[in-house]
Amino acid sequence: MAVTRKEEERALNADEREVVRQTRHPEIQGLSDDALSKLLRRLRDMRDRAKSQANQQRREMRGKADPKGAAPKSSDAGSRLKTSVLALSLKRLNSEIQRRAAMSRNHSLVENARHALELKLQAQKNNIPYNTRYANQGMRDIPDKKVVSLVRPAERGRLRKAAAMAQARRDTTD
Question: What's the burial of 58, exposed, middle or buried (CB within 10 Å: 0-12/13-18/19+)?
Answer without folding.
Answer: middle
